[in-house]
Amino acid sequence: MDSLKLSLVLLLILLSKAESYAQPSKDRLKDSLLHQYNSEQNSKKRAQYLLELCEIEENSSAAVSLAEKAIRFTDSLGLRDENAKANHLSGIAWKKWGDYNKSAARLNTALDYYEKRSMKRDISILKNDIGETLRASNNYNLAFSFLNSALEYFTSTNDSLEIAKTYNRLAATQYEFITKNPEFESFITNVFVNKLSYNEAVSLVPDFKKSVDTLLNYISQAKHYAVCCNSISIIISTDIIYASHLRTTGQTDEAIILFDKIIADINQFGYFTELPLVLYNKSLVYIENINDIPKAIELALEALQLSKKFDIRLYKYLINTVLQRCYITSGDYKNAIAFIKNNEELSKHFVFEELRLKLLLEQMDYQFAKRETELKNRSLRLAMLLGFFAFILLFSFIATITVSRKNRKLKSLLDELNTKNNIISKQTDELKDAVASKDKFFSIIAHDLMGPFGAVKGLTELLIDNINDKNMKGVEECASVILKSSQKSMELITNLLTWARSQIGRMEFNPKILNLNSTLKESLMVLNESANNKNIELINNIKDDTTVFADKDMLNIIFRNLVTNSIKFTNQGGEVVVWDSIRNNKVLISVKDTGIGIPEIMLKEIFSLNSMTGRPGTNNEYSTGLGLILCKEFVEKNGGEIFVESTEGNGSTFHFTLPYKQNYERTERQKN
Predict the structure, then answer these.
(1) 90 within 8 A of 64, measured Cβ to Cβ
(2) Residue 499 clears pLDDT 60, i.e. is over it
């Protein structure tokens, strides 16, 4: 406790000291540098003034313009050191502006030069900035690699400022990495749905607790070194990360208190470029944690105004998204549409949001009509419920003897009514899913199945003509195409029937202990011909003694569909590898190919029936995507989960888990 008090006192002293030695305003400094740049005759000094202008510019568009000008100017003069610095600053500016590809290109140009000159400190500073760009583009594993490499060097040189910066970026990366993991979803469910306390929810998800402990360590280290080197900006930035963590983990009161403190610090010390991010996160507290829509709108509008001032596209995009949610939730569709349209232009720089925005625009007209109908239905239901409640209250008044007994009975009746309403709501959702499944089923039959049969019909007529003309070459060609069309139809029919049986509950489920290697061999035997036709090598790296507890028929269907999918989307001469490992007391099976990969826009919905789309293979093989839907259903039926990792142009890896033999036997012993 004494050491904590001492640290707080030290922090306050340093903050006071920083305030007393405040720099002249950035506007005056900018004007001074601009004057020196324009009046200086020496070209090298002019280049240095231009680089200093780039470093202090807060507006991202202006920073990009200055940095690009510095690149051209230093290149024309042959100033290599200054040109590398200009590329470095350009990469930082492009990242802030929101173009991560250009940012990475500029930073890599600078890195090549620094490495050729063995400029170790500059290399490490640059790695820190590359890690930040990778974090912003959601490439967390690579971001950690660059940041840890930078941290190793700065630790060896005891550079407190750069250590603080690196720990700060590690904390930001770890925070975002946590929120993208499945364990985070489990934690959120326990906090917001099951209403558990933070500590109770954390204890139920051990992997999430480890990740949070790592995050808190990064935050602690960043604050410690920032205090040591008197870096107010890093202290504020680290506080923002911690406040965001408090918000997303349901620690609402603590989050609001810390956000208010951060805003006060920003106003005191003048780091206003951080203010839009703080106001954005604080608005999320009011929309997600407190459900105070007017307050959320007030904060988001203030954040948007500042984001426009500093021209930070990502902030504008995120804040527009919050305002969309607020206005849709409050029923103000006019303003909602306005902000959705604003985001359409911004989304060109963020491809992953483009489809969602267009879909929202297409659905908005439907939402107007739907809301009118819902209001009428709600009024009718409310009248019925009021009548029912009036009857219950009257009956309770007559039947009860004491006020206490009447209250207990009324509570019981209300709980029962809520339960029934929840059941009805759940049944309604299930009915909607069933209707969607039916529509998709008939869509596949009408479009995907009729196509091959239509081709067979036409080719059969052509085959008869060739036979009559005794054109044996034509007969052979027609027969070959008919065979391929029939195989496509058979594959589709098999998947459709299997899927239909699973939907109506007529597919038997008989899990038992299976040798995983032997089961895979059986599945690969029927796929060898397809692989040989494309000269693709099928590699079985499953360990001989690996056993799982699963339904054999379902496991064969999973293997066949995943390997078939890999063969379809792998070019001639490629390979498909299957291997196993242990993950969280389950067997993790991985199917990796060297194919064409999956576009990012398809990855998010690849296992969804409603958005299922097919695309041709590398040899124009037929595909509907239904096989992946089957894989997901059967993996989950067997107590596992399935997910995919893919980069377009670099192949795909499908992973799924199953219970393994030892885990099953331990469960059986516990039952006995």
Answers:
(1) yes
(2) no
